[in-house]
Structures are given as structure tokens and as C-alpha cells.
Amino acid sequence: MSLREIKPGIYHVGVQHWDRRLFDALIPTPEGTSYNSYLLKGNERTVLVDSVDPELQEELIRELKGHGVEKLDHIVSHHAEQDHSGGIVRVLEEYPEATVVTNAKNKVFLMEHLLIPEEKFQVVAEGDTLDLGNWTMEFIMAPWVHWPETMFSYLKEERVLFTCDFLGSHLATSDLFVEDEREVYLGAKRYYAEIMMPFRHLLPKYIERIRGMEVDIVAPSHGPLHKDPAFMLDSYEEWATGEVKNEVLLVYVSMHGSTKRMIEHLEEALIERDIRVKVFNLEHTDVGELAMALVDAATLVLGTPTVLTGPHPLAAYAAILANALRPKLKFATIIGSYGWGGKAVEGIQALVPNLQVELIDPILVKGHPKEEDLAALDAMADAIVEKHTGAGLI
Ligand code: FEO
After folding, report:
1. Alpha-carbon torsion, ordered 86, 88, 90, 92, to 10 deg
2. How far apart are the C-alpha atoms of 44 and 132, rounded to whole Å?
3. Class assignment of domain 4-241?
4. If residue 162 lies in a helix (H) or strand (E), which one and from where to where?
5. pLDDT at position 2 over 80
6. Across all residues in the chain, what is the average pLDDT?
7. Cα separations (Å) of 258 from 248, 284, 337, 382?
8. Ligand 1 atom 3 nearest Cα
9. Where along the chain do its domains lie?
10. Interval between CA 342 and ligand 1 midpoint (Å)
11. Ligand 1 centre and the CA of 84: distance in Å?
12. pLDDT tops 60 at residue 1
């Protein structure tokens, strides 16, 4: 990826990771991702804004060297996660005169994770500024978007806001700026669901703060840049605080067909009652798709057979994921089957302490579902209709 000018003297020097398919050994990235590093050539000082993932750090060094950057005064580090900070050590090898400008918490993280010596740091706090000569860079603390040390920075004179993970998207693209909002929307929603949703209660204050600023360009650390940030701010607002939809997620795993039969019956019963459903067979599910579905749904139905005495491990995985992502769900329940007993329902319930949901009575059947079990699932569909109606979703 070549160095590209965003505004005179301000360059994108990040890299596209086209073939990255898994992030943090956890999160699917079917469209790859990017690590947006920026070069600011002030008339007195030159600054690198974040680095890139260590796997691609030589690309960053080639870009800087290939474009005649002989000296860096500062490296601004917004966030310690290594997709942005991991290349700093290598950059410091090439530019040993540079100081690492960051907040006190991130300084400790970078010392612990990257073993950067303490004397390399220049610590800043909320409202502090960095003088680049013709430009002033102001620092804005933004804890929990994504980690507790995360911060933004604002190049005042050029009205460019660097938001690190916030408003970014896991999307490798040659587009410097958002060209196709529809394409970016899905990548950004996936990013929100996987990375930002656990902190959704904190997001409105950052959305409002950015709305109140004079900003020409929002430059996140993943995905294309925003010349019209209202589109992404509106999307974030909807995802974080909008009402859930009249929608049920049927998320299941089945070993011998009993749980699958129950899910299929409930799916039909809900559709007959004009409730939108999305079905995820956990044997094949991209958990990013599931995370995106959790952004909007009102109800989660988790289907699990009983393995030995507890839930199937794939169902437990889905429960742990939902618990970690803290979606806006209002209702949840568990259905499934067992052979000789067990505690599948209790096992799932113990995994979701963070879910602020009303539990609809679970249904666990012995062996294959019989007529009375299917009737109980019809009654569950009626109960879901009643709950959604009571919540004003129908
Ligand atoms: Fe893109 Fe939280 O790092």
C-alpha cells in the first residue's frame, strides 16, 4: 500500500491485511482488515500516528523509508492493542530519536506488553496538546473504546479526528475514504458487534462529543476514513441505543436431530406468528454473523442437547459469547433434549450473568420431541408474541 495524502502534509501510511481471516484468534474477519497508521508532516515536527500489526510492520517501514522520512519526532499511540502498537518497537529501531506520546495508562501497557523503556515516553492527559509547528494536536481520553487506555486525537487546524478503533471497520479496501456506504455499513456493523458492543452504554457520550466538534475527516484505525461521519455516527447510535427488533435468534447445535427438530418447529411457529427469525446452526456459524444478529434481536433461543450432564460445548460457547458482548436482548430461553437427565439449562444459565433478560420458561425434552413437546413449543411461540407485544415491538 502506498503513502496517500489525506490533506496537505497528512498521509495514510497504513497497510491492508487482505487475507486476515481471524482476529485475536477469535473474531472472523471475512473481508480482511486494515491497520491505519498516519504520518503528519508538521513544519516543525513529524509525527507517526499509531503503527501497524507486527506481522505487516516491514510494509510500514518500507513506506516511511521509501518516501524519504528520515526523522520522526513522535509516535502517538492511541491504544495498546498490538494491531496498532505492535509495530512501534520496530519503528523505534529505525527512528530512535522519536518519543512515544500517549497517556499514563497506555504507557504502562506498552511497557508491559512491548517492553518499551520508560524514558521513551512522553505522557499526555485529557486536553493536553502537542505542537507540530503549524498544527496543534489535542488529546481526548476515550476509555473503553476499546480498552481502558484508549484515546483519540484531534488535529485542530485541519479538523481531522483520529478515533482509533471507534467508528472503524474490519475491511481491507483500496478506498482511502468511504465510497460505498452500503459496503462499509456491514463491515462496520461487524466491527461494532465484535469489538464495541460490550461497551455500548459508554458510546453515546463519544458520539455526542464528536457531533459537537468541527470535523472534516474522521480517521479511524481500521477501514476507510469518513468525510461524512454522520453516517457512521448515526449507525452507531442506532446499534448502541436503538430499540431491539421483533426478531428471534434460534441458535442451536444438535447431535442426533432432536434439538434440530425443536428448532425447526419453533421457527415455523414464530414465522406463522409474523415474528422474524434468524437461525444459526453452531456447527457452521461464523460467530461474527451471530454477533451482528445480536445487535438487533429482541429474543435469543439457545438450543442444546445434553452432553453427559451439561450443555453441548458449542452451545456453551455461544452463551459465553452473548454474555461477553452484552447485547440489547430483552428475552431469552433454552430448548433442547436429554437422554437420561442432566443440567443443560442450569449450565447455560450459569454462563450468562451479564445478560439483562427476562427468562421465558425453558423446554427440555427426553429423547425425540413428541406431540406434547411440539405443542409446548407452540405455547413458547405464543409467549414470545406476548412478550414482544408487551415490549411494544409488535
Ligand atoms: Fe484495533 Fe482494539 O484494536
Report:
1. -160
2. 6
3. alpha beta
4. strand 160-164
5. no
6. 96
7. 20, 18, 6, 21
8. 81
9. 4-241, 245-387
10. 40
11. 7
12. no
Q: Residues 6 or more apart from 63 whose CB is under 8 A from it?
A: 1, 2, 3, 13, 15
Ligand 1 pocket at CB < 6 A: 79, 81, 83-84, 146, 165, 221-222
What is the amino acid identity at position 275?
I
Q: Which CATH superfamily is domain 245-387 in?
A: Flavodoxin domain (3.40.50.360)
| pLDDT score, position 360 | 97
DSSP state of 157: T
**What Rg value do the Cα atoms of the chain yield, rounded?**
24
Residue 341: pLDDT band with limits 50, 70, 90: confident
pLDDT of 24 = 85
Segment 130-153 mean pLDDT? 97
Q: What is the per-residue pLDDT across 163-189, written as a single tens digit (0 to 9) for each?
A: 999 999 999 999 999 998 988 999 999
For CA atoms 161, 194, 171, 76, give the dihedral sign. positive
pLDDT digits (tens, 9 = 90+) for 40-74: 999 999 999 999 999 999 999 999 999 899 999 99
Burial of 370 (0-12, 13-18, 19+ CB in 10 A): exposed
Write out the three cell numbers for 141.
481520553
Q: Which three cell numbers stand for residue 261?
A: 427438530
